[in-house]
Amino acid sequence: MQRKEPLYRRVNSRTHGVRHGNGGDWRASRNTKAAKQDLAYIGSMHSHHRHGLDYTPLFRFLLSRVGKDWDEVYSEAIARIDRSEPIFWLVARSEEERQAYVRVGESSYYSGLYVDENKRLALVDPTLTANDMKPTCGCCTHTFNGERFTQPYDER
User: Fold this and answer.
1) What is the domain extent for residue 93?
2) CA-based end-to-end distance of the chain
C-alpha cells in the first residue's frame, strides 16, 4: 500500500532575518533590573509556537471533501497531518463556532465548514465567493480559498 503525502508542508523558518512574531526582545532586556524583578521572564525561553508548517494542502483537502461523510474525511485527514488542531480551524465543532469564512494567516481566508445533521461536511455559507470579499489593506494579496479577491482595496 502506497503512503499518501502529508496534508501540510514545511516552509523555511531558519533563514537569516526571518521573524515569526515570537518577540525576540529577551536578549535586549534579560540583564536589566526590571527583567530580574519580573517573574514573567523566569522560565524557558522556548515558545509554544510551531513555526515552519503550512496547512494549505489540508484546507484544500477539506474543501474538496464537502458533501462527503465526516468520519471518513476526518480519519483520512488525521492520518496525514501531525496534529488535529488545524482541522478545527476551518471545521466548527459547535453551532456557536460557525463562521462564513475563517482567516488563516495574514491575508488568506477560507470557507467555514461544519458537520451537518447527516454527518456530512458542509459549507457554512455556500454562496460566498472571492467576488464578495474586500481586502483590508492595499499592500497584500488577499485570497479566498486560494483565489484572489476581485474587489480593489478601498481606502475609505
Assistant:
1) 55-148
2) 56
